[in-house]
Input
Amino acid sequence: MVKTNKNNKRRPTGVGYFINGIQTLFVGMLRIWTIPIVLMLSVASGFTTFYGLSHFITDWIALIITIAIQSIIVICSLEIAGIHWKANRVRYASVVLSLLIALTASVSFSYFKFYEISQQGNIHINRLDEIRQSVKTYLGEILTIKGEVIKQQHLELKKASDEAAQAYFGTHPLITGGYRNQIGDGPFYKHYKQMYEDKKIKQQNLDLAFSSFDKKIQQLQVSLSNLDVAKDLESSYYDVLTKYQDVQIQTGQLSSSMGQGLPEAPLLMTYRQFTVDVTPSIVMWKGFSLFAFICAAMVDFFTVLLSYRLEFTAPGPLTIDEEELVFECLRQFTEFTINNNDELQMVIEKTDIEKARKYSDLSRMFAVGLLLNRGFLRKLDHRTVEFAPNLYPLIAEKMGDKINQIRTASLTNKDSISSET
Output
């Protein structure tokens, strides 16, 4: 052991002190590292809060409110760790209420940013589905009308063909009695044959027009299919709009041939609307995203937790004087047991005899409070504490010093007795 005197105190060397020094250094490094982590988390949460808040109010006001929110979160988290609700319920309630309000504001506005990030792909898919559904509905209505027109034209052509055949064989209802049942291509037959030829030509022209129309519809559908996998999204989207306009123009040209009122073509979104970023709004809460909410809450949760632990954990190691004080004061306790955690625990209340004698336990309770504050003791309940692992080496070293002192004193007494004899 290294000797010490009153003027120059040095920490004794030993395994216990070495282990305690390593543990203390590790805890200290974690505490130091916790500070920049809390600051980084606060900045990250502040950025997302400012992003959501700036869409509703002026930027500089949003920045001031964001700084206030993040400051309240850190300050209240530190303050909660240092107060107890039984000591001052009003103060504790006000701090907790302030923290809850700040957290609610922070998470609510941070949610918009995480929603935008997490739902960006879904929003693109939803917009694409909206375009496809609009085009599909429009084309479906037109193709239904087209089918009805083709069916009607076929019926009219068949009717004209039947009337021409009846006129040729003289069985047409409009033929007068003298010419009935006379076979031949007279004026009556030529009239109906010409009507049949006109309808046939009209049918052929309509079929050609519908064939061209079907090709444009097919091209539009191909463009829509390629839109989701296109490398050049802008060119592909404008190609869809061009093909869609071609279908509209062709539909307008066929409207007179169809002879029916056509449905109004839906207005598709522009390319800018199709690719615009998500703008925070209350609508985001209607399509609630649990993942975005958890991400927003997680950042603030870690900020609160680390800020709380930063204040709640032990601030540092014991000095030599504190070690001497703690060791002497702990020796005054008498009720020690081994608990279920295989840790040494002790009762910190006065014994009945001490209460009867009105014994002042200020010094030893101060030592207990010091060790609890530094993390060397753990409180089990209002009357019992247990040793933390980093306290055993210190106590072992002190007990070793006492044993060595006793042995030295015993040897000194023996030497003095032998010299006297």
Summary: The beta strands are 336-338, 344-347, 377-379, 384-387. The chain has a mean pLDDT of 77. The radius of gyration is 46 Å.
